Amino acid sequence: MRILVNAALLPDIYSSEYISFLSETFARITRNHPEHNFIFICETKDADLFSFEKNTGFVKTKVSRRNAITWKYWYDVRIPALLRKYKADLFISPGLFCSLHTKLPQLLMSADLVFVDSPSFFSKSQLFFFRKHAQKSITKAKRIITFTQFTKEEIKKNYIDTESKIDVIPVPVRVRLNSRSDSIKDQTKAKYTAGKEFFLYTGNLHASGNLINLMKAFSLFKKRQQSSFKLVICGDQLNQYKAFTKLIETYKYKADVSLINSSGEEELSNLMVSAYAFVYPVLSNGLALPLIQAMQSDIPVVVSDNRALKEIAEDAVLYVNPADPQNIADNMMRIYKDEELRNDLIIKGNGIVNRLMQYDTGDQLWQAMQKALL
């Protein structure tokens, strides 16, 4: 069997997280199923992330992730052509969009319905594409993967013809890349925060990341606590978010903010284990890989009271109203002042991670792929 996996044209909301998810999950799947061939459509810079076994191949490309016209061409013309060229048996793609111009079975993976919940994040042309193609794609797809029961129910509520085709698989737990040694922590703090303790945000710099309210919350924290704490924001492709980087230049506490372009999994892991706490007031994200990695790294987490995130993290984090900077700041202060609370959250976070580690996300995705071929 030949399986074509779309790792290039990813929704801009969670592109870097999906790349990591696809890389780590398919590393296991390709290793466990050497009798099948896997072909990954990916940007040239991501090719190394999909260099697994001898049964993998690549279609290297560079496409716009924001242009709705490009999306239509991609799904209507480019994908059918690639499926024919490589004689594929199955097509896997993130989001709720597939090609309407092929008879081959297709499997979709959707972490959330951000274009339904937060339409202001998108241009008119993008929303037009989403609204025109979502129901048609859902009807066309053989199977749909989600990562929380909440997202499954949201899809069922908004679209018809979904009851029997949605599978919920567990959020994947990433393999730890380094130790928690004091030397790692000291070196990381010296590199990014002049040796000072810091709050960490890592993820998308898109509007869904809610970074403006995070900056306001940090201002309130600094004003109230008068501490030397820093804020580290680690994101992907900073050059695409020039308006945000310019905003940092006029920020009152800019000397206490480090803006870092994602520099690899090992460096990100170093930041995670070195942070005092992870602050994640996102407006939308059902995949939640940074949240899981933070709990795995033995640091407490402050996160949005998003229902999908609550389903994953339960009582192991502090929940905030992402629209209220004061509420975010108050919970940052709680983490800062209450060591007992901080340690309790770390212990509970480890419990969540240990439970998730009992599931094999790759195996459950493989089972969903088999269903799509029936």
Percent strand equals 15-25%
Q: Could you tell me the CATH topology label of the largest domain.
A: Rossmann fold
Name of the CATH superfamily of the largest domain: Glycogen Phosphorylase B
Total of helices: 14
Mean pLDDT rating: 89
Record the strand order, biggest sheet.
Answer: 3-2-1-4-5-6-7
What is the C-level CATH assignment of the largest domain? Answer: Alpha Beta
Basic shape: globular
Poorly predicted residue ranges: none
What can you see in these coordinates?
The chain is an alpha/beta fold and 374 residues long. It folds into two domains: 2-169 and 359-372, Rossmann fold (3-Layer(aba) Sandwich); 182-356, Glycogen Phosphorylase B (Rossmann fold), CATH 3.40.50. Helices cover 45% and strands 17% of the residues. The chain is built from 14 helices and 13 strands. It has a seven-stranded parallel beta sheet with strand order 3-2-1-4-5-6-7. Helix 7 (211-225) links the parallel strand 8 and strand 9 (230-235).
